[in-house]
Amino acid sequence: MGLKKNPNNMNQKIFIKTFGCQMNEYDSNRIFDSVKKIGFKKAKNYEEANCYLINTCHIRNKAKEKVYHEIGRIKKIFRTKKKPLVIIAGCVAQAENEEMIKREPYIDLVIGPQSYHKINNMILNYTENMKKIEETEFDAVSKFKYLSEIKNESAKVSSFLTIQEGCDKFCHFCVVPFTRGPEYSRPFKQIIDEAKYLADNGVKEIILLGQNVNSYEYEGHRLSSLLVEIEKIPEIKRIRYTTSHPKDMTEDLIDVYKFSKKLMPLVHLPIQSGSDKILDLMNRKHTVRDYNKIFDKLKNINPNIVFSSDFIIGYPGEKEEDFKETLNLINRIKFINSYSFIFSPRPGTVAANLQLIDKKISMERLEIIQNQLFENQISVNRSLENKILNVLVENLTEDKTKVFGRSEYMTSVVFNGKKEDIGKVMSVKIYKSNRTTLFGKVSKNSNQMVA
Ligand code: SAM
Ligand code: SF4
Ligand code: F3S
User: Fold this and answer.
1) Cα distances (angstroms) measured from residue 31 to each of 117, 260, 364
2) Would you state the pLDDT for residue 451?
């Protein structure tokens, strides 16, 4: 075992590999904030680590296999060295719990997403008595109480802030209610304190996170109240939130777009399908008409608002006409920055055992949808050429010759900035684009600003 007995005095190094959504990214950073307290530093690569943590995702198929595959790689790397401490965290850990240790004895600890407040003790106990354990209780209250007591030191220019965890919606295809447990909203003050702390440490953009971020509810506070309060923090220049559910796009939230100066005009609102029949089969609890109404209301408030979404293609029962309705919706809304996936049956969900549609048909439909989404993206990006955009500078490019930032619509922008520009919102004139990136030059003339 590569881990020494008293980590407080030792040069312990942890390598964290993260799969899945932004909530896992946030959690991985906070896990590192936690283990720092018992002496861990970040390992730059696998080889120098004596603790290896995989933060797993269970949303689509092969998730479990990916984890075992990853362990196979570590085993190979450490064949001739001391074995590292191997920890499995995240949604696969929650779903599989002690089964993982039984199947793969190379695993030492298994910890579910709502037990991260226990990670330091688990590691210390393990180094004392070498007893393998799993912790998969749902205890969001203790998790966030603990995380708010240790400082969020993983701040970058743009930082995530989890405000809500879990889900009570039980869409028939989705494992999240089982892996993240029931909906829980963090206390309002705890979130505002974390936002202020991030601002004091150089953060300029906060992305509020939750599996159902717009169902946030704490003692009468809603997502809208959080947005209003965070807007008051002077150092914070931009605010975003993800992922939201159409059913929770309430009037108070829509109203914030009327006066907010910091809420970005990209709304990520997954719809999954453009067919009411499929939405009903999925148990989504809203119709396409409901969705269109939200879109129209927001467009009326600000015509520059643009939507992005998630789509599931080939859900059991999806006929050609249902698929066409999804395509029609994509053409109407002109989504950008969207994701599309083929339906993947998840164990334990209602849709797990439904009759699958032909794989070849699903693949063909996915290709058509993705081409359409790509076309939209390319034409939107092209329409921005010769325009001046507001870009929040996040970092130097890898070769350090330029800077990299994001437009208000989250699109990557590369331009001729300097290291000192990191953290600033700059006016950039776009001269070239492709599907994923805009290329520009710093501009002094802000008159043609579009976004
Ligand atoms: N809460 C969000 C919502 O209501 O849309 C979704 C969160 S989920 C972590 C992210 C995306 O994964 C979903 O929007 C959906 O498109 C996709 N997804 C979830 N379960 C899936 C499954 N069984 N097969 C394929 N894609 C799936
Ligand atoms: Fe999953 Fe989102 Fe549905 Fe909840 S609302 S079950 S997280 S898809
Ligand atoms: Fe995956 Fe869990 Fe997120 S299943 S998408 S890591 S909530």
Assistant:
1) 8, 33, 41
2) 46
Question: Which of 91, 120, 137 is where one domain is finished?
Answer: 137
CATH of the domain at 300: 3.80.30.20
**450 pLDDT above the threshold of 90:** no
Q: Are residues 434 and 363 in the same domain?
A: no
Q: Is residue 2 part of a domain?
A: no
In a domain, 177, yes or no: yes
Cβ neighbourhood burial of 438 (10 Å; 0-12, 13-18, 19+) = buried
pTM check: above 0.85:
yes
Residue 257, token pair as written in the block: 């777009």
Q: Could you read off the pLDDT of 228-241 as tens digits, one per residue?
A: 999 999 999 999 99
Residue minimizing CA distance to atom 7 of ligand 1: 211
Ligand 3 centre to CA of 91 (Å) is 6
Neighbours of 143 (CB within 10 A): 24
* 186 and 110 part of one domain: no
Token output for 406: 């994001």
Helix residue ranges per DSSP H, 273-394: 276-281, 288-301, 320-333, 359-383
Q: Using N-to-C axis directions, what is the helix angle for 320-333 and 288-301, rounded to 10°?
A: 10
Closest protein CA for atom 25 of ligand 1? 343
Centre of ligand 2 to C-alpha 243, Å, is 9
- Taking the CA of 179 as reference, the closest ligand is 3
Ligand 1 binding pocket includes 306 (Cβ within 6 Å): no
**Average pLDDT in the 93-117 region?**
93
Q: Do 49 and 116 share a domain, yes or no?
A: yes
Query: Separation of 68 CA from ligand 3 center, angstroms?
Result: 17
Q: Does residue 191 lie within any of the structural domains?
A: yes
Judging by DSSP bridges, how do beta strands 12-18 and 109-111 pair with one another? unpaired
Are residues 101 and 165 both part of a single domain? no
Count of the separate structural domains present in the chain: 3
- Note whether residue 194 is domain-resident: yes
Is ligand 2 within 6 A of the CB of residue 169?
A: yes
Residue where one domain finishes, among candidates 137, 155, 172: 137
